[in-house]
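Notes from hallway chat w/ T.B., transcribed later so I don't forget. T.B. wanted the structure written out for a chain they're using in a teaching module, and asked if we could keep both sequence and structure tokens in one place. Agreed to drop them here.
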Amino acid sequence: MRQILMESDMHIPYEDEACYMIEKSPSVAKLQGVKIVEFVQAVGKKHIKMVEAKTTAPCQGNTKDYGSYLRDIREKFQNSISLLNAAKMKRREAIYEELPQPLKDVDYKTAVYQLILVIKHSQLDWLASLTDDLRRELHPFLKCWNIPDANFFIVNEDLARELKIVE
């Protein structure tokens, strides 16, 4: 059943039966201090979509805030991928039990990960350099998991609406 998540002042549609609200998970909350994305969704048996939403992003000229922002986003995607796979391997059995059946049924060995950061207020010309910087930040981790850098992308609200990521 189609649901709407209200996050960062945006309406993000998701399929309830295939979606794990990892950020609201009681089992993940018990881990304390582990930053994660908003949600993880199975798209068929071969794709896993992870979505993080932000209202804004700092400008590159603000090196302290910008560097902190890059690390925060990297950490959220790294932890989410790690926790999801740990759950699938039942190393985090409580999280595994919370997963909806479609996420349990995904073939994790060959799954295509789609990592999406939606920034509500961001100019299109900023997205390319921010995407490049975050791909660089995520590259070693994505390389370990055999996830192409191109599977991580950033969109603003307008582009997200065109791609039907937000309404």
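Follow-up for T.B.: The chain has a mean pLDDT of 94. Might be a good example for the class.
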